[in-house]
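testing teh design pipeline on a random one, pls ignore if ur not involved
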């Protein structure tokens, strides 16, 4: 990812902000934004154009007092200058600086985090306030759009894990949530309160699906030892990520792999096999099993892997998450001949089940379809309203119970326009 340093001045009147726009860690380029009333002056005190490589008209941009690009009126939106970031007489880095708007500059330096930190510290020493990239981007979008909902869409779209998520989010500006706000506000006099409450509940349901699409899902692979959980994780990832062996209790610590699952992104987590006997063996086994149980509580879906050849299988997990039972090793046995499988089926009737051979890669496509259908990610058409920030969620949650029309009307408007 591109790293960058932006110097931001005047996001808030009189305040100059500096913000690292690019990701953490080593990379080729870093971008730092500087914005606000004092941005041009700060830039003038730390940036010096290169005589050899700057644009031919750069001489006209020099500040005579400092011989640096300062309040040069001709360095304006769309211009890019090549030069050095200076700490006094010491060169910190060779950079490109772009002017992206009135008092908004972006310094593109080299991507070593130590360099980026020095650039930021120089700006801070000149009075700029450091802000995180989320806050910075939101302020920027808010200024551009003058609409809180639209700014929130742009920020969320930047962070979406999938293209489908971006499409769904963008649809909230012209249809989706914005349309729901407009129509509800227009018809507030004639609308029944219970209709608004029901619509708010439906928006919250849509939001759960939208979150899975935009942020991705966590799917925990659980089940008894030796049932083929790690083999299944390897089948999902398409490579040998985890050790597989016929020794029960091979996986102790959890291992996760993030990969594409149809139109969404999924983190598959392989866990230590659930087994009461193993749990009582020693502290390591006991801890491994506790970790598995915690993972089961924090996931979107459970894939419960059962060895189809096992005798008297038992479903040992709580059922408060969507579960798909996977009968693995179907290459070894005919399903109808196995008494254990029948018994498990009766215990978990109502649960979706899929027969696979993780080793031979058979049935994986059917399992993926079952997962997507269990997660309901194909059930949210573009343009359906949903919420995607904690601010919006708090408002819509409140709308499920508030019954005063004046209050409801104000709350609905706040969804789009902010406070
Ligand atoms: N025939 C057959 N063998 C399989 C299949 N899947 C896994 N196995 C074998 O079953 C054994 C256990 O597989 P693992 O993937 O390590 O099982 P696990 O559930 O992760 O086991 P623990 O980590 O000990 O809980 C290995 O010898 C695998 O090669 C399958 O679909 N068919
Ligand atoms: Mg394993």
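output:
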């Amino acid at each position: 990812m591109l790293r960058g340093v932006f110097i931001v001045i005047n996001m808030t009147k009189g305040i100059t902000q500096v913000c690292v726009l690019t990701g953490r860690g080593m990379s080729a380029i870093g971008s730092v934004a500087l914005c606000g009333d004092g941005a041009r002056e700060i830039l003038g005190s730390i940036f010096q154009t290169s005589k050899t490589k700057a644009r031919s008209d750069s001489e006209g941009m020099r500040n005579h007092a400092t011989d640096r690009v300062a309040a040069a009126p001709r360095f304006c939106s769309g211009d890019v200058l090549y030069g050095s970031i200076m700490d006094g007489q010491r060169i910190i880095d060779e950079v490109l600086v772009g002017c992206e708007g009135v008092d908004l500059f972006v310094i593109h330096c080299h991507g070593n985090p130590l360099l980026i930190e020095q650039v930021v510290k120089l700006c801070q020493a000149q009075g700029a306030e450091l802000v995180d990239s989320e806050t910075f981007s939101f302020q920027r979008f808010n200024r551009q759009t003058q609409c809180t909902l639209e700014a929130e869409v742009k920020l969320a779209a930047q962070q979406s894990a999938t293209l489908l998520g971006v499409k769904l989010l963008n649809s909230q500006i012209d249809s989706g949530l914005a349309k729901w706000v407009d129509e509800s506000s227009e018809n507030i006099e004639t609308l029944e309160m219970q209709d608004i409450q029901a619509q708010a509940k439906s928006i919250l349901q849509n939001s759960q699906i939208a979150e899975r699409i935009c942020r991705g899902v966590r799917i925990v692979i659980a089940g008894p030892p030796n049932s083929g959980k790690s083999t299944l994780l390897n089948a999902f990832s398409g490579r040998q990520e985890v050790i597989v062996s016929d020794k029960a209790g091979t996986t102790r610590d959890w291992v996760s792999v993030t990969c594409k699952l149809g139109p969404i992104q999924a983190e598959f987590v392989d866990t230590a096999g659930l087994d009461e006997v193993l749990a009582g063996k020693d502290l390591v086994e006991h801890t491994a099993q506790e970790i598995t149980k915690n993972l089961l509580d924090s996931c979107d879906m459970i894939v419960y892997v059962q060895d189809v050849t096992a005798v008297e299988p038992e479903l040992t997990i709580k059922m408060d998450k969507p579960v798909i039972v996977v009968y693995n090793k179907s290459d070894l046995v005919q399903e109808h001949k196995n008494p254990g499988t029948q018994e498990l089926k009766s215990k978990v009737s109502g649960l979706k089940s899929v027969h696979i051979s993780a080793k031979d890669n058979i049935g994986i496509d059917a399992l993926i379809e079952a997962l997507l259908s269990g997660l309901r990610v194909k059930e949210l058409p573009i343009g359906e309203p949903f919420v995607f920030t904690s601010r919006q969620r708090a408002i819509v949650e409140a709308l499920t119970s508030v019954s005063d029309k004046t209050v409801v009307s104000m709350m609905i408007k706040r969804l789009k326009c902010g406070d």
